[in-house]
Amino acid sequence: MHKSTLVVSLAAAVSAHQNLHQFWVNGVSPGYEIGIRRAPSNSPVTDVKSNDIVCNVGGDKVPSGVETIPARAGDKITVGWDPSGHPGPITHFLYGPVDDAAKASGVGAGWFKVDERDYVDGHWANEVMQNNGGNYTFSLPASLKSGDYLLRSEMLALHAAQTVGGAQFYIGCMQLKITGSGGNCSPTISLPGAYNAEDKNIYIPDVYNGFDPTTYSAPGGPVASCK
Asked: Where are the transmembrane segments (predicted)?
């Protein structure tokens, strides 16, 4: 049943390019597109070896005028994306702590995954978000060092993953100033570097014929342990 459900949802997926537009910390938003490094368009990133995989197209060139928003370790974060009909997971990564998030490109080592939702109870993450106005909520780790961080939200559309380079990454980066009591998080990854175009969770040649979504885990390794 899971396999046929996936095929139907993939075949029915319409053009649904998307961007991250807003986020909330414990239910309070700094405002529409405030604290977010805005993408130049709603088109996806498909080259996982380019710097665009970090914070979207041109995202390695640190933009000016983006506010850094206060948060605390353990806070609930809600992200607001354009709803999408493209099936796939959502993941979140932190980069830091750094001295100044407004000056950090995020290119290179030091990212760690803090949240992941794949195919759960018969539904991809995008379906759950469609039913919630494009919103999704998760919690920051309870143990984090104080400092500035980049928070990276990634939606991965798998409707064209049967070809190498067909998977579509939609990425939004936020700037946070987190207050925490300390903690080291591992494992960490490098962006670019952690993703390869032919990884089994990026290139899925049988996505329309026999792929079992219940076995799927999103790119970027496991959710980090912070302690």
From this structure: none
